[in-house]
Design goal:
The chain is an alpha/beta fold and 299 residues long. It has a single domain, classed as Alpha/Beta hydrolase fold, catalytic domain (Rossmann fold), CATH 3.40.50. 33% of the residues lie in helices and 23% in strands. It is globular, with a radius of gyration of 20 Å.
């Protein structure tokens, strides 16, 4: 069989195809960790092409049967505390103050960085507690440690500009240590104020690859932020009986994001935990499924 040489155009197209396939093959996808135990319960309904989902949450099953001591200590099979071997309590000195934080996993050369920002009355210790919230933070720690990633749970001064500046300095420091890492910020409750402030900043808004709002608040200014313009994926988890931040308001904000971006569908998901309360999304969010979706949509 005669072998014909490719024209320059065909050679370029072939090379581009190979690079695209190779890039897709090399895209990070988190490996499973206790997926069967942390899978969502039944789906009650969905709309918006699957972007909005209502999940069957039940306190008797999802707290009382899952926990050895309800809301304080999960049953042992939900956790693996060996991850503490790669957990450090650290202090970063920055121009906006010292930032105490707990780091789990690779502090250099990480492929993915996830931060958790606590709500009112919390601390950096909340995000690394192995036994509360149904063991879900332990799962996140193991997912990061087992996939060459870094998990950060920091303290910060407040939920205003200074707190946002401290978290931004922390992100900047670790992004320099892991320049190719995808960066995701999860915000619980009032911590969501920092998520929106980070999205609005010129530095972090252009650096973040995803936001997770867990039982949190909304901010219309996001629709004019650098992060929104980059189509940074946004995940909302909300309990239908959340009396702190009403689910209807968060749902309306979610739908405003979709409406604002009709020409190019915005990557956003909303999971409503039916009968769930304020802390339910932190307990129930499927970290692996959500982060893998975000990795596939990251700008």
């Amino acid at each position: 069989m005669a072998i014909r040489s490719l024209s320059p155009l065909h050679a370029l197209l072939a090379a581009t195809f190979v690079l695209c396939v190779a890039g897709h093959a090399n895209a990070l996808e988190l490996k499973p960790f206790k997926d069967d135990l942390f899978a969502y319960p039944a789906t009650l309904s969905s709309d918006s092409n699957g972007a909005y989902t209502v999940i069957d949450y039940r306190e008797m099953r999802d707290i009382n049967q899952r926990d050895e001591v309800p809301e304080k200590r999960v049953h042992a099979q939900y956790t693996d505390t060996g991850v503490r071997k790669v957990q450090q309590d650290l202090l970063l000195k920055t121009d906006v103050g010292d930032v105490r934080h707990i780091a789990v996993g690779k502090t250099q050369g990480a492929g993915i960085i996830v931060l958790y920002l606590h709500g009112q009355g919390g601390s950096r210790k909340q995000g690394v507690d192995d036994f509360t919230f149904g063991g879900n933070f332990n799962r996140l720690k193991n997912l990061m440690a087992g996939n060459g990633g870094l998990y950060l749970s920091p303290d910060f001064t407040d939920f205003g500009d200074k707190g946002a500046a401290q978290v931004a300095a922390l992100i900047d420091h670790y992004a320099e240590q892991s320049p190719t890492a995808k960066i995701f910020v999860a915000c619980g409750s009032m911590g969501g104020a920092l998520c929106w402030k980070l999205a609005a900043r010129n530095d972090t808004g252009r650096r973040l690859d995803g936001l997770l709002l867990l039982g949190s608040l909304w901010d219309d200014s996001f629709l004019a932020s650098p992060a929104f313009r980059r189509h940074v994926p946004v995940f909302f988890g909300q309990g239908s009986h959340d009396v702190v931040f009403p689910v209807a308001d968060q749902e309306a904000f979610f739908r405003s994001i979709i409406a604002k971006s009709k020409a190019y569908p915005y990557p956003t998901h909303f999971v409503r935990f039916e009968t769930g309360t304020h802390g339910t999304p932190i307990r129930m969010v499927d970290w692996r499924g959500t982060l893998n979706w975000m990795l596939s949509k990251a700008p």
